[in-house]
Amino acid sequence: MKLIFEEDKEGRQGFSYGASDVPAAKPLPEKYRRKEQASLPSLSELDVVRHFTNLSRLNFSVDTNFYPLGSCTMKYNPKFTERVAAFEGFSQMHPLLPQLSGGGMLAQGSLEVLYGLEKLLSEITGMSAFTLQPMAGAHGELTGAMLIAAYHKKRGDRRKYVIVPDSSHGTNPSSAAIAGYEIKVIPTGPDGYMDLEEYRKNLNTDVAAVMLTCPDTLGIFNPRIKEIADMAHAAGALMYYDGANLNALLGKARPGDIGFDLMHINLHKTFGTPHGGGGPGAGPVGVSSALEPFLPISRVIRRADGTFALDYNYPESIGYIAPFYGNFGVLLKAYAYILALGKEGLIRTAEIAVLNANYCLARLKKYYELPFDKVCMHECVFSASKQAENGVHALDIAKYLIDRGFHPPTIYFPMIVKEALMIEPTETESKETLDAFIDIMIEIAALAKDDPSAVTRAPLNTPVKRLDETRAARQPDLRWKRP
Amino acid sequence: MNYIPHTAEDISRMLSVIGVKEIDDLFKDIPASLRPKSFDLPAAKSEFEVTRSLRLLSGKNASGLVNFVGAGFYDHFIPAAVDSLSGRAEFYTAYTPYQPECSQGWLQAIYEYQSIICELTGMDVSNASLYDGGTALFEAMMIALRQTGRKKVILDSGVSLIYRTMLYTYTSNLSIEFVEIPVAHGQSCRKELLKYLDDKTAAVVFQNPNFFGAVDDYSDMVEEVHRRGALAVASVYPVSLGMLKTPGEMGFDIATGEGQSLGIPLSFGGPYLGFMAVRNDLLRQMPGRIVGATVDSEGRRGFVLTLQTREQHIRRHKATSNICSNEALCALRAAIFISLLGRGGFRELAERNYQKAEFAKDVLSRIEGVEVKRSSPTFNEFTVCLPCRADEAVNRMVEKGFACGFPLGRFYKGMDNYLLIAVTEKRTKEEIRRLADSLEAVI
Amino acid sequence: MDILKDLFYTKDHEWARIEGNSAYVGITEYAAHSLGDITFVELPKPGEALKQESYCATVESVKAASEVYAPFSGKVISVNSQLSSNPELVNQSPYDKGYFFLMELSDPAEKARLMDAESYRKYTEGLSK
After folding, report:
1. Subunits adjacent to chain B (3 or more Cβ pairs under 8 Å)
2. What is the pTM of this model?
3. Are residues A268 and A166 in the same domain?
4. Structural domains counted in chain B
5. Most buried in the list A15, A353, A366, B195, measured by CB within 10 Å?
6. What tens digit of pLDDT does each residue of A300-354 get?
């Protein structure tokens, strides 16, 4: 497809503002004006519409394809949440309106959404309070790392380390590093759990926090998780919960009850807000009461008369991590989603998410190596090592799946499993869809044995074949340039 | 209401394949002692009920006030095609384009967005976006710190206090020395900059137009910054770039800003769009995702996420930042918005904003007691001094149906009588006249 | 996999060719092969002080970034300027045209902590198992 710049025609304009109803003014002096005009694409509205419509049709998406990306929870995004977010009463609100007329009286609707969501998330997770400011999961982790630092600083105890398992998502150590911490990595044992002995050895009073996902990135719930938490607390360290896998625990366990002191949630994973091609998301951070004083400001409170207001009076707050209250448009969709699902819907979500993943595990374990043969939770991790012996790697399997109309599972993560294939079906996928996917995976396993090149030459049916990523990195071409 | 398709028959078939009797068996690894202490949530509701109750809530917001508040976030008109195109499910229900063969739509759209940001800012290369203008500014500052190895940052006070506060929050665990230089007559003060600029300075940060709406040409100051081996960072308002000298033309090393004004609704604080564009030699320092063009095995042009080894999922604790995601859908909206406007429309938009604000300044300056600050040129936002407290005037104006401006006393000491007014292309001549009449009545 | 006789090797797959009181440093073919197509090399600056086994450079491929550790303590004399425009030299000629830098040795006796060609061969064979 042509670049939009390549469809440009001088003299065309898609959108115009019409005649001005105010008189012309004296122009700004030359020295403040730009000399070179921006070479922006100029097309008719129809051409713009065709361009982007056709671009959209080159994508796989949840609404068009099964998307079992492990760790991403690609569940169905309910359409009614889009409608709600578009209500002008919500979308037209300038974020500074509460600064205009005392007590946020101009924004009671939005403030109630924020307050309500905070309360729901607290109950779902067993945490005491939430900040809705973080604008993504990784942003939530960074906020968490800053809260951890504030907590220890207040106690006059400047600890140096954060412990993570070697199976952790890359954002965990990088977030901790930005908050000034060094990382200690604990290996995963042959049983699929974090090595408790190594953990015990590394846990001392210089450790500020332990960052874990639960179930872990192998999709496994560690039954000794409470023991891990107790050990951390005994050393004075905080327990941080990476909420990427919360979908497995809804109504079955709460991080707060397990002993986690703070956590983040990915609303675009667990609570059905759309992934948007990579954003916007939201990563609210929940805390126990000991950490509440450090939460970012402002916070939404409910006054005795039932009205909502913004409160800035938290002298120990870490400050502002977002310009305002968070990605309100995303928060609103999650709020609507939780209200629709209700208690029974949330519990059912975890149950069916886990059922679906175990179904995939049970049917595929004959064909793919299962590094840890246990019941999984909402995602299962296979290794394509058997297939790799014949030259068919996880990457090839992914490309073949694309050819057959399935988005591949997550590949090569977690890094502790060679040729990893992480499958997370989510609860919104039917048995028929799973069976179709499993059948193709079985077909691939057979081809890997009998006709490996059928897999390694994939994809053949896509708009582009395999792309030269080396060239992209060695000779960066990152923008269109006017010839 | 839930979206789970399983029938009882599906479930029993699946359980038997797995080899367990009931779903609860799959949760046996969770000990009884770790089950929820409470799970007290409301019962499920239908789509109709939830839609209805949220519509009622939206009615409790004063979204219908005639909006003259800016302060970094602007009420611009969004063409319908932006909504319909970015509302296509193939865009918004897709994930990050890690598998390029099935995400060429997203990858090409982001490449186009990156190109557009470069054209707007006059810089060499852009990333795929960051969370918002504040985090983009933080990341820019971090680039300067890493690149120079120095620890001092000079912030012009014309940079939005919202962003400055975010910078302080993010850096509280890193030992960075901040110096704030005051503005003079609305514009930046060169004397103050030279007083603090030295060999320990990593970066100097300016905003254009600044928080007071003042427009400036920072070229001479950027030269001074470079002479000391420091980096010059700009935070800019993209709509103004249809008219104003660009960060690229002024010699800035990094341009950042808030892209909300490019087709993204105000939405009470987000989601927004942080953009960042740098000079070529800073490319590998730039955080976030980047899309690059390449060829496939048959010579066809295609697009991929590239230079990913800067990112967290590969470098982990040595990553340039921890930013994992971009604001893809917002970046898409911006690309569509600009494409609809084109060269002509984008210039029109800037001119129209400028004209409307100049008209408003004239009309308001005729009110007795109101002083429109004219010591610096402005774009679409300007400061007025009232004969009473600005926040009181603002509250009275709300009753008359106006969000008439931002009372600067909230952010700046000694400015209790100052009001910051933004006028976009959406404000009609009639609204501006009524603003003036009402303001005259309340002060 | 090529392992040259006259060089000395580290556990992290760096090699050093000692010439008097200085040494050329690079990464072995084994390392280059595991990384895949090298896309970028971040080198230390001339004059920079190095400590044996401490981080001194980074090698990037499409999918991975790997740290390079100094085989000796000393000071960087010069770097291979070809690598910035031709990182593929590391894949094509890891022991010759794809070298990283030349350094001055502050303590040649540190050689005792490195492996010779035979030991390195045995070491890499053990890794592949």
Report:
1. A, C
2. 0.95
3. yes
4. 2
5. A353
6. 999 999 999 999 999 999 999 999 999 999 999 999 999 999 999 999 999 999 9
